[in-house]
Amino acid sequence: MSLAALLPWRGVAAALVAALLWSGLFRLLRRGDLAALGAGLGLALGWVLALGLVTGTPRQLPERLPALAIGGALAGLVLALAGRRGWVAALLAGLGLLGAGWWLAGGPLTLADLRRAMVPLLAITAAGAAALLALRGPLGGAAALALLAAGLWFFGPPGPWFLLALVGIAAALGAWPGGAWGVAPALPVAIGLAALAAGPILARGGTADWLVAAAPFAALWLGPALSGRFGGRAGEPIGWAIAGLLPLIFVWLLHRGH
């Protein structure tokens, strides 16, 4: 294996190290509100290094992701520094999610383009909101991204999607010292998760892409409900696994049938 082949993987290592350093430093400084932002920082740095570019005029969908991750990290930082809570935080986070949907939908500037892009724009915004409401900490973020990564590895389209999901896992795990997530630290991860889930759908749009995208959201929303039926320490991971793996099993059956 050549050195050039290893270069894209530096994004995974950078995401882990950056998130660990940020979270650990601010935990030592007793700034828990800032320590939890390590995941967003790691995600942004990792995606930039994995793709090797930041451009304001992207031609392909993956080229939109580094700028998106940087914007998400900055939005989370602004929210944390502003110290806003309640409806103000919800409004600011909603604007951030809407901006992410607009950017991924092609950044339409005219009314005609906006009409054509309205469905993906609103769908991505809604997916980001669903992730934001359900993400509570590094483990949940890493588990959701791991389910998405598994689906992308086996059934995803060509492209950097699987690698970018690994970067997200590394960033979330690196934020472990930062503790639980509020709105600010969860925002960049929610945006990243929605972007990765939507990317293959926008690029190819097959049935498998929809089911793979559903896996992390099923785990985030249905996993806790199923966990209560099992009880004990193993209840939560079992519930999450059942909820998240079910869409991937359907994809496997679909591929097997063909």
Automatic annotation (TrEMBL):
<feature type="transmembrane region" description="Helical">
    <location>
        <begin position="142"/>
        <end position="173"/>
    </location>
</feature>
<feature type="transmembrane region" description="Helical">
    <location>
        <begin position="210"/>
        <end position="226"/>
    </location>
</feature>
<keyword id="KW-0812">Transmembrane</keyword>
<feature type="transmembrane region" description="Helical">
    <location>
        <begin position="238"/>
        <end position="255"/>
    </location>
</feature>
<keyword id="KW-1133">Transmembrane helix</keyword>
<protein>
    <submittedName>
        <fullName>Uncharacterized protein</fullName>
    </submittedName>
</protein>
<feature type="transmembrane region" description="Helical">
    <location>
        <begin position="117"/>
        <end position="135"/>
    </location>
</feature>
<feature type="transmembrane region" description="Helical">
    <location>
        <begin position="65"/>
        <end position="82"/>
    </location>
</feature>
<feature type="transmembrane region" description="Helical">
    <location>
        <begin position="87"/>
        <end position="105"/>
    </location>
</feature>
<keyword id="KW-0472">Membrane</keyword>
<feature type="transmembrane region" description="Helical">
    <location>
        <begin position="34"/>
        <end position="53"/>
    </location>
</feature>
<feature type="transmembrane region" description="Helical">
    <location>
        <begin position="179"/>
        <end position="203"/>
    </location>
</feature>
<feature type="transmembrane region" description="Helical">
    <location>
        <begin position="6"/>
        <end position="22"/>
    </location>
</feature>
